[in-house]
Amino acid sequence: MHDALFWLCASLAVGGAALAMLRREPLKCALSLVTSFVALAGLYFQLKSPFPAVLQILLYAGAIMVLIVFVIMFLNDESAAPGKGDLSRGGLVFAVLLLVPLGWVLIRAIWNADWPMMRAAPEDFGTVPAMGEKLFTTWLYPFEVLSLLLLAAMAGAVLLAKKRLD
Amino acid sequence: MDPRPYLTVAVLLFLLGAAGFLVRRNMLVLFLAVELMLNAAGLALITFARMHLSMDGEALFFIMLALAAAESAVGLAMVIAIYRNRHTLNADKLDDLRG
Amino acid sequence: MDAITLIPLALLAGAALNGLLSLLSVRGRRILEPLVALIAIAAPVSALAAALHVFGDVSHLPSGRIEVELFDWIAAGSVNIDMKLVADNLTCVMLLVITGIGSLIHIYATAYMHGDEAYPRFFACLNLFTFFMTMLVLGSSLPVLFLGWEGVGLCSYLLIGFWWKDAKNSAAGMKAFVVNRIGDAGFLLGMFLLWQTAGTLEFDGLRRFAEGAGAAAAFGADSGVFGASVATLACLLLFVGATGKSAQIPLFVWLPDAMAGPTPVSALIHAATMVTAGVYLVARLAFLFSFSATALATVMVIGGATCFFAGLMAVRQNDIKKVLAYSTISQIGYMMIGVGTGWPNVGMFHVVTHAFFKAALFLGAGSVIHACHHEQDMRHMGGLIKKMPLTAIAMTLAAAAMAGVPPLAGFFSKDEVLWRAFATGTDAGMFAWVCGMLGAACTGFYMFRLIFMTFGGSYRGHAHPHEVPGRMWATQGLLALGSVGIGFLAVPHILGGHDLFGSYVNQVLPLWAQPAPAHGEAATEWLLMGTSTALGLLGIAAAWLCYIRNPRLPDACARTFPRTAKVLEGKFFVDEAYDAGVVRPLEKASQGFFHKLLDRGLIDGLVNGTAALAQGMGSVLRHGQTGLVRTGIGLMLAAVAALLLLLLG
Does B91 contact chain C (CB < 8 Å)? Predict the structure, then answer.
């Protein structure tokens, strides 16, 4: 059962990602990617991390992808889209030449590596209190800086996208 | 449990994102590719967190998520600005630095 | 400060001061002249005083020499050459000639060059020349001598081309310098060979080496060049340098052209001092030449041949200075014969006497040229004895001295040379003797041809000649008197004298030939003396015949022997031969090969090629800048991939 769930989520994740990169219309790409992200959330559940899984759905699939879909629909200009020449042949060749060996090496390294024994996870692993404890102790500083970052990002986005009134 | 399948999925997702970035020309799709790569990294983080039973990895995942949100906001604002100026979503048309 | 150091220093100071003043007088301020003249005369006169002091010291010191080390000059590994000045008897003789006659010529020049716009520069160069000449004779080693040697060559170039605005003068200066340079190549090679053989270039050191045990073997060893011994090769190479500096065959062609310089320059450099440097060199290295009979024979043969042929060339010259130039070449031939006999003192004595009468003649010629408003062709002179009596007397005395009229100086010096040449008994010596005898006849002829054409008959020119100012006739007069009296320094034994000069100089020079012939051969000596004098007087008589008694005679002779006349007038076409054989091919080679192929092709090609290469590489690499985002990211990924492959692969 466990295996089957894994295979489902994994294939959805990889398949969705592949489709996202291959489809012509950006909207369809975005929606495929959403599928992939939800599948990833499933994978997180299986890794005994409920809180990150929910965060994935809420933030990534729910907020970031929505924003992207919004922008795609906002900039719905056929003439501006690359259209026929969307896929770069040179880039494809380069990608294949580079990433296939890289992938092979990495996967081989993963499967041949000596991983430590995985133990059973305690009950409160991956839950909100556990995460909160980490965030407000070890990772307090980055957490606070993050809020600043979000503020800056907000201001920057507004400034950049604003229509010039001159 | 075995981390290896999860890590393989992460590698595959990352490679797909990289390939997509190198191949596609539409700026928004390029954006999607970047998000995909980030997610691959996230999967790897969670896997290792589970492996070592340490919440540090998951905290990092949280931070990375927030970062991705901020970055996507700013990035999409830039795409809109570029579109306003150049009326194109074709990244290849933006080659002013061509030697 | 030793007196010996003062000699070159005073002259250098004079040159420097006048050099600075020459920068000032660009606008030709005439108030400057007296100051420049004062400095210019003070320098050699102080040097003369110092030289007399040194002469006195050297005579009284038991070692017979003064040595002063100035500083370490070259210190490169095993090569250690010091700037050292040495004065012994031979040096003193040369010093007195250089500073004494030099001072008189400087005084003459201050009047001769009056009004010239580059007055200070002239005296700066003239003082500088004298400085280098003193360094040449004071040098304790061959390199220091060479320093002076090159320096006088440089100053000669500067002074010959003094009026450089006329391209002919610059060309003459260049010719002098280049021909000298060829000689210098031989000099350098000779120095290197000596260094390699003896390990030292100091005259002391070489002398000690030569007197040492292994000398005969070292010097006699086969040098690998046509089987000549080391000594022969070294001496011949050094002698090549001497032929250049002293205008002997084959490198004499620069001296007649050098007459383009102002006449005091010709007097000082090309009569009295620089051209005798080669003779001094051979005399100084007499101990070395004594190891090679071949070298000595060569010196005598070349000296003899030059003496005769230059004498012939002088016979048909019409420019008064050119006659004197060829005469100089011829007389130096005598000096070379002298030092080649193995009795170098006779050559050196002729140096001294020649300095007097040749300088007097050149200064007189300068006066004549000055008076005739820069006319140098003797065919436009004549009858000047009435207009310039003092100059005429001085020149006639000097000419008579040169021709060997007894008891004037030239008689004593020339006769000794010829007697010693005959007495060596070698083939070379006999050849030199014959040439010298014939040369004596030529000397008498061309010298008095000059006198008669210039001062005799009636004036054929267009100017208004007059006697020259005091400074000029006084100095040339003094020199003429010197040429009368100086001979008595070396009256030979056969005439009852003690040969003061010879015994003085021979204290430092080795004698290799057999000792002086005994009284048993006195008859031969008298006979030879008489013959040479008679030949000289015969020449004078012939000149009188051709130029006073029957002026149409020379042209009649020329018509009867047209080809001989042509060859003589053309100076045996030596210049033309050199031009065709050496100069033209060199020019062609320079243009065609060195310029076109090496300079433009290779060097420019390399330089331009490097630039083109950079440009080419740039235009190729430029294509890497696509300006696309994916290129940048792709490269990043590639780098990471490479790293991972390295770590995990």
Answer: yes
Q: Does B87 touch chain C (CB under 8 A)?
A: no
Distance CA C404, CA C102 (A): 24
Backbone torsions φ then ψ of C507, nearest 5 degrees = -60, -30
Q: pLDDT exceeding 70 applies to what percent of chain C?
A: 95
The C-alpha angle with vertex C483 and arms to C528 and C284, in degrees rounded to 5, equals 75
Tell me which chain B residues have a C-beta less than 8 angstroms from the C-beta of A154.
73
Residue B47 C-alpha, separation from nearest chain A C-alpha, in angstroms = 7
C455 residue type, one letter: F
Q: Taking CB atoms and an 8 Å limit, are A91 and C634 in contact across chains?
A: yes
Yes or no, beta carbons of A94 and C634 under 8 Å apart: yes
In whole angstroms, what is the distance from residue A151 CA to residue C585 CA? 88
Spatial CA neighbour of A60 closest among A92, A82, A36: A36
Mutate to test the interface with C, among A99, A102, A105, A111 (most CBs of C within 10 A): A102
CA distance C547 to C553: 8
**Measured on CA atoms in the order B20, B25, B27, B28, is the torsion positive or negative?**
negative
* Contacting residues for C223 by C-beta, under 8 A, at least 6 apart: C193, C229, C230, C232, C233
Judged by CB atoms closer than 8 Å, whether chains meet at C641 and A101 is answered as yes
- Rounded CA-CA distance C188/C192 in Å is 6
A47 Cα to chain B: minimum distance (Å): 6
How many Å apart are CA C45 and CA C100, to the nearest integer?
A: 8
- DSSP single-letter state for residue C1: -
Closest CA to C420 of C490, C503, C311, C347: C347
pLDDT digits (tens, 9 = 90+) for B2-21: 889 999 999 999 999 999 99
Q: If you search the block for the tokens 């740039």, which residue do you land on?
A: C618
If one counts every other C-beta atom within 10 angstroms of the C-beta of residue C622, the result is 10
Chain B residues whose beta carbon lies within 8 Å of the beta carbon of residue C639: none
> For residue C128, what are its two tokens?
């500088």
Tokens representing C396 are 């006639």
CB contacts, 8 Å: B88 with chain A: 80
Q: How far apart are CA C472 and CA C456, in angstroms?
A: 21
Gap between the Cα atoms of C480 and A38, Å rounded: 127
- CA proximity to C64, closest of C75, C54, C50, C51: C54
Task: Please report which helix (H) or strand (E) contains residue C69, including its range.
Answer: strand C66-76
Q: Residue A87 is nearest to which of B23, B66, B69, comparing CB atoms? A: B23
Q: How much is the average pLDDT of C153-165?
A: 91
Q: Which residue of B has its CA nearest to A79?
A: B88
The ipTM assigned to this model is 0.91
pLDDT value for C494: 64
Whether chain A has a CB inside 8 Å of the CB on B59: the answer is yes
Collapsing DSSP to helix, strand or coil, C92 comes out as helix
Three-state secondary-structure class, residue C574: helix
Task: At C315, give phi and psi (nearest 5°).
Answer: -65, -35
d(CA B3, CA C552): 131
pTM of the complete model: 0.72
